[in-house]
Design brief:
The chain folds into three domains: 60 residues, Nucleic acid-binding proteins (OB fold (Dihydrolipoamide Acetyltransferase, E2P), Beta Barrel), CATH 2.40.50; 66 residues, DNA polymerase, domain 1 (Orthogonal Bundle); 45 residues, Orthogonal Bundle (Helicase, Ruva Protein, domain 3). The chain is of the alpha+beta class. Helix content is 45%, strand content 19%. Helix 4 crosses helix 6, helix 7 packs across helix 8 and helix 7 crosses helix 9. Strand 4 and strand 5 form a beta hairpin. It starts with a strand and ends with a helix. The longest helix is centred in the middle third of the chain and has 15 residues.
């Protein structure tokens, strides 16, 4: 099992990153909460990781904090929740916000996350009640500078997180994206989606 990686951030394309460690480039999928806090390519990074082994692929997931990693792992143990949905949860809200949703049984807010319907939201609340007490929220990561084709990157990242292209078009159509980085656009779209 690969528990963490420390190395040079070789590439950032939401929600994927490549971290080069000892001449090997590890491709990781990250929730947007982690992605927002990453430095520019070329800088050193440290990520907590979780490896998912499937029949068709080995997928490595990276997290800024141990709390995000712990919540990701807890979410994977919920019936009907896979890695893609767990990433969507972490991208849409902080660990603290998720805990509040579970504690206050706020299924309506959870259903605003792509791929989570009413029954899944209720199952998350029921199955995560005992587990959220074990996760302690960390500080919110800082927002890094963006890239030139920000709207296109934001569109691709939101689709990769499980939103349908038509929904992404609707979300982005309501935003003033001029002069904003991809990370800023994604953050605004996610806030709008779960508001």
């Amino acid at each position: 099992m690969i528990g963490s990686l420390r190395g040079r951030l070789a590439a950032k394309l939401p929600p994927h990153v490549v971290v080069e460690c000892g001449g090997v480039g590890y491709e990781l999928e990250t929730p947007m909460s982690t992605f927002f806090g990453l430095p520019d390519a070329g800088a050193e990074v440290f990520l907590h990781t979780h490896l998912v082994v499937r029949d068709d692929a080995h997928v490595l997931y990276g997290f800024a904090t141990p709390e995000e990693k712990a919540l990701f792992r807890s979410l994977l143990r919920v019936s009907g929740v896979g890695a893609r949905m767990a990433l969507a949860v972490l991208s849409a809200m902080s660990v603290r916000d998720f805990e509040r949703c579970v504690q206050h049984e706020d299924a309506a807010r959870l259903t605003k996350i792509p791929g989570i319907g009413r029954k899944t939201a209720e199952r998350l609340i029921i199955e995560m009640r005992d587990r959220v007490a074990k996760t302690v929220p960390g500080p919110a990561p800082a927002v890094p500078a963006g890239t030139p084709d920000a709207r296109s990157e934001a569109f691709d990242a939101l689709v990769a997180l499980g939103y349908k292209p038509a929904e992404v078009q609707r979300l982005l159509g309501k935003l003033d994206v001029s002069g904003k980085s991809a990370e800023d656009i994604i953050r605004l779209a996610l806030r709008q989606a779960i508001a």
